[in-house]
């Protein structure tokens, strides 16, 4: 499957994580498997603290296909 063949999916977090199609409707037979936020540590007066440094992405399954790097909305 080439990049142009991948449907335009996004992941909506609230009220529960769900896969959303380009038309804004939930995708049947889909599951959000994992959500990842890029992180880093910063130094504070209380020591090192983990922090998010960029937008999150999700790994989803739609029917029998797995997609990674799906944007959150």
Measured by DSSP, the beta-strand proportion falls in over 45%
Strand order of the largest sheet: 3-6-7
Biggest sheet: strands, sense, closure? 3 strands, antiparallel
* Average pLDDT rating: 90
What would you say this structure looks like, in words?
With 73 residues, the protein is mostly beta strands. Helix content is 0%, strand content 52%. It has no helices and 7 strands. The strands form 3 sheets. A 3-stranded antiparallel beta sheet has the order 3-6-7, with no helix packed on it. A two-stranded antiparallel ribbon has the order 1-2. The two termini are 24 Å apart.
Walk me through the topology.
Elements: E1 10-12, E2 18-20, E3 30-36, E4 39-44, E5 47-52, E6 57-62, E7 65-71
Antiparallel strand pairs: 1-2, 3-6, 4-5, 6-7
Core attributes:
single chain, two-stranded antiparallel ribbon, elongated
Give a brief outline of the structure.
The chain has no helices and 7 strands. By secondary structure, it is mainly β.
